[in-house]
Design a protein that fits this description.
By secondary structure, the chain is an all-alpha fold. The protein is built from 2 helices and no strands. It has helices at 3-6, 19-55. It is rod-shaped.
């Protein structure tokens, strides 16, 4: 058995200074953008559903209460 392959992956250079903070910030920005996109889609879907429901109301009937 080849010893170099059984010891694990080859050693990598360490990440640059500040990389962990940069990566955490990037992940946060992506998460925020995903939330905004989800909210925008939900607003559009709700508006479409309401519009369909209103379109099905019998507008010819008038209530004189």
């Amino acid at each position: 058995m080849n010893k170099s392959t059984s010891d694990g992956p080859a050693s990598l250079t360490p990440p640059p200074e500040g990389y962990a903070d940069w990566l955490a910030d990037l992940k946060g920005r992506i998460h925020t953008a995903q939330q905004r996109a989800t909210l925008a889609v939900n607003r559009e879907l709700v508006a479409a559903i309401v519009q369909q429901a209103v379109g099905q109301l019998p507008w010819g009937l008038t209530c004189y209460c």
